[in-house]
Give the backbone structure.
Amino acid sequence: MNKQLRKAVIAGNWKMNKNPEETKTLLNEVLPLVKDADCEVVACVPFIDLMAALDAAKGSNVKIGAQNCHWEKNGAFTGEIAAPMLTAVGVTHVIIGHSERRTYFGETDETVNKRVRAALDAGLTVILCVGEALEQREQGITEELVALQTKIALQGVKEYELSRVIIAYEPIWAIGTGRTATSEQAGEVCGAIRGVIARLYNQKAADAFTIQYGGSMNAKNAAELLAQPDVDGGLIGGASLKAADFAEIVRAASQG
Ligand code: PGA
C-alpha cells in the first residue's frame, strides 16, 4: 500500500488544559518549530481558547480544531457548541467520539455518528476516535469492536466526504498511561480500519484515507509508530503540551 497516496496528519489534543493566554504562549513556541513540516499540523484546543489559538496561528501552517461539537445547528442545548459556530470563527477540525467523552460524558456510537454528520455538513474535518478498552483487547474483540465503532460512526457519510474524515485509533489502555501500543499492534488495527473503509466504500477511498494512532505517542516512540504502513499520523495528548516534543513528532511524520 502506498503511503504517499494520503496526507500525514499530526494533531494535538490539548484536552482540558491551558487558558487563552497560555494557549498563545504555547502556540508561539510551537509555530516556529513546525513551520517547515511536511505534514498537516493541527492543534485541538478547549472551546474557550479557540479565538486565541486562531489569532496566534493566523498565517501559519497550523490548523486549529475543537474537541467536540453538537449535532444540532442551534437550540436549547445548554453547554454545547454547534458545528457551524466553529466554522464561523475559522475552526477547520473537530475531534469526535474521544474515549474520554464516551467514558465520562455518555457519548455513544449513535451520538458520535450524529456529531460526525453535523460536523461534515458544516464543512469541518473530523478526527473520529475509535478504540478498545484493555478488557476488550484481552477478550480478543479489538478489531470487531473498532470495525463496529467505525461503521456506526460513518453511517450516512458519503464517499466524497471522506477526504474530510480522519480516524484516530486510540486504544483506551494506552491513553495518558505511558503504556503505548507496540507499533505492530497499532499497525494491525489501523490496517483493519483501512479494510473496513475499503469494504464500506472501495479500495481507492481506503488507500487515500488518513488513519492516526493515539495513546502515549511521544517524541521517542513516534518514528517507529509512524513507520507502520497503515499509520499515517498521530493524535497526541500529553506530548502536545510540550512544544519541543510535539515538534519532534511532527518531524517524525514529515520524514515518513
Ligand atoms: P495521550 O492522549 O497522548 O496523552 O495518551 C492521546 C489522546 O487521548 O488523544
The domain at 9-238+247-255 is CATH 3.20.20.70 (TIM Barrel). The pocket of 2-phosphoglycolic acid is lined by residues 13, 170, 175-176, 214-217, 235-239 (CB under 6 Å). The beta strands are 9-13, 40-44, 62-66, 93-96, 125-130, 165-169, 210-214, 233-236. The chain has a mean pLDDT of 97.
